[in-house]
């Protein structure tokens, strides 16, 4: 039986199961919450007992059928709500039903193994909830492919509820997530596709290599400065020639600096290779080409923004994008106090940095005429002003 039944009256009852005795009928009524309204329990049991001989539809008598009738109201099947506390090695699982925990345990952090456990322990899963984290993209797409109703929720919102537990354990966190799934008190997070994550990974790898190159060059300058060798300004091959020129006659220092300079030089080639890929993507995408028409927006910023947004239909309006990236000011209001603070800095840190750099170029470095820099900006009361907005606003106009 896939659901429970509630009996209002027993005039021509409809039966969806075939008990073989009165005792079996009573046990079946108890298991499936059959409620006898104004009719006595014995009368209902007798009715079910009279139907005990119904082994197949061709043996039905007295005009009774298997079609739904007025005697029995069928409710939906029992629904289970699952919370997953994901870690790198194991995942804690908690399953709730009808406001109670019915099972909890642990499983290896593998989507296929988790899907098998959930199908076995919760065949009527309504929601499978877990928090955002390093494995959330993989888990979301893999469990969705397994046919499970997966929901990824914001970890900041879940933390407020999970902190109510007396002890911080993986099992308690899974219980808390399952409870949030059952009551529906959560905020679902849009999980990016693998194509968007590949672009993000590319930009992250390129940015890390650029950071490593800058750190090595600064380290070389600092080491040589100790011995009175000040490297002049310059980048690329100019920097390399300046270092080699200053190391002439400094054999002992050269044995330390030259290996670092060689490592610095080797990083330049993978950086150049990774930099070609966003440029190729931007040339093939009309949205990226449109974004690159804005002063200060290059191939990296355009591809990062397009990959993060994915589909414009994900946002109500353009202002929602600024809040999503964390470029809108925070607000604190309590009683007579109503203060606007700094930007929220929520969302994608990397994308926010790229957009801020683009806005700084528009306001400070760009000499081209642009409405983003010299246009008339509308204020809240509808009046116009020649004063340029803050950088975070300029990037979204």
Please describe what this structure looks like.
This protein has helices at 22-31, 41-50, 111-121, 136-145, 155-162, 170-183, 194-226, 237-246, 251-284, 286-292, 299-309, 318-325, 349-365, 371-374, 391-394, and strands at 5-7, 72-74, 80-86, 90-97, 100-108, 125-131, 150-153, 329-334, 337-343, 377-378, 384-385. It is built from 15 helices and eleven strands. Helix 1 (22-31) crosses helix 2 and helix 7 (194-226) runs antiparallel to helix 9 (251-284). The protein is globular, with a radius of gyration of 33 Å. With 397 residues, the protein is of the alpha+beta class. The model is unreliable at 1-22, 32-75, 376-382 and 384-397 (pLDDT under 50).
Give the helices and strands, then pairings.
Layout: E1 5-7, H1 22-31, H2 41-50, E2 72-74, E3 80-86, E4 90-97, E5 100-108, H3 111-121, E6 125-131, H4 136-145, E7 150-153, H5 155-162, H6 170-183, H7 194-226, H8 237-246, H9 251-284, H10 286-292, H11 299-309, H12 318-325, E8 329-334, E9 337-343, H13 349-365, H14 371-374, E10 377-378, E11 384-385, H15 391-394
Parallel strand pairs: 3-6, 6-7
Antiparallel strand pairs: 1-2, 3-4, 4-5, 8-9, 10-11
The total strand number stands at: 11
Strand composition percent: 5-15%
| Alpha carbon gap, first and last residue | 59 Å
Number of helices: 15
Shape: globular
Question: The biggest beta sheet, please?
Answer: 5 strands, mixed
Question: What would a concise description of this structure say?
Answer:
By secondary structure, this protein is an alpha+beta fold. The chain contains 15 helices and 11 strands. The chain starts with a strand and ends with a helix.
């Amino acid at each position: 039986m896939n659901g429970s039944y509630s009996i209002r009256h027993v005039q021509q009852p409809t039966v969806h199961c075939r008990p073989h005795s009165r005792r079996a009928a009573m046990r079946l009524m108890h298991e499936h919450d059959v409620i006898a309204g104004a009719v006595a329990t014995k009368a209902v049991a007798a009715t079910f007992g009279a139907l005990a001989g119904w082994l197949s539809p061709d043996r039905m008598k007295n005009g009774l059928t298997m079609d739904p009738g007025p005697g029995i109201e069928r409710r939906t099947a029992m629904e289970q709500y699952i919370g997953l506390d994901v870690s790198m090695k194991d995942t804690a699982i908690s399953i709730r039903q009808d406001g109670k925990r019915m099972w909890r345990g642990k499983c290896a952090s593998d989507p296929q193994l988790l899907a098998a456990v959930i199908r076995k322990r919760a065949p009527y899963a309504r929601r499978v909830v877990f928090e955002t984290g390093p494995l959330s993209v993989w888990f979301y797409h893999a469990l969705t492919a397994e046919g499970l109703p997966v929901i990824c929720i914001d970890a900041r919102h879940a933390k407020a509820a999970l902190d109510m537990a007396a002890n911080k354990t993986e099992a308690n966190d899974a219980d808390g997530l399952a409870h949030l799934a059952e009551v529906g008190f959560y905020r679902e997070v849009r999980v990016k596709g693998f194509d968007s994550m590949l672009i993000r990974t590319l930009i992250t790898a390129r940015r890390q290599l650029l950071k490593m190159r800058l750190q090595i060059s600064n380290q070389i300058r600092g080491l040589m400065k100790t011995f009175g060798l000040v490297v002049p300004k310059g980048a690329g091959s100019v920097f390399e020639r300046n270092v080699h020129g200053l190391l002439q006659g400094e054999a002992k220092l050269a044995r330390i600096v030259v290996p670092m300079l060689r490592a610095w030089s080797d990083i330049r080639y993978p950086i150049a290779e990774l930099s070609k890929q966003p440029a190729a993507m931007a040339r093939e995408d009309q949205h990226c080409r449109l974004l690159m028409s804005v002063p200060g927006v290059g191939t990296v910023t355009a591809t990062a923004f397009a990959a993060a947004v994915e589909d414009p239909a994900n946002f109500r309006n353009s202002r929602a994008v600024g809040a999503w990236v964390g470029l809108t000011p925070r607000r604190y209001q309590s009683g007579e106090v109503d203060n606007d603070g700094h930007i929220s800095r929520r969302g994608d840190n990397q994308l926010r940095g790229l957009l801020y750099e683009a806005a700084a170029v528009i306001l400070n470095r760009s000499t081209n005429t642009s409405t983003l820099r010299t246009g008339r900006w509308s204020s809240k009361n509808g009046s116009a002003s020649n004063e340029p907005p803050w950088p975070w606003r300029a990037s979204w106009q």
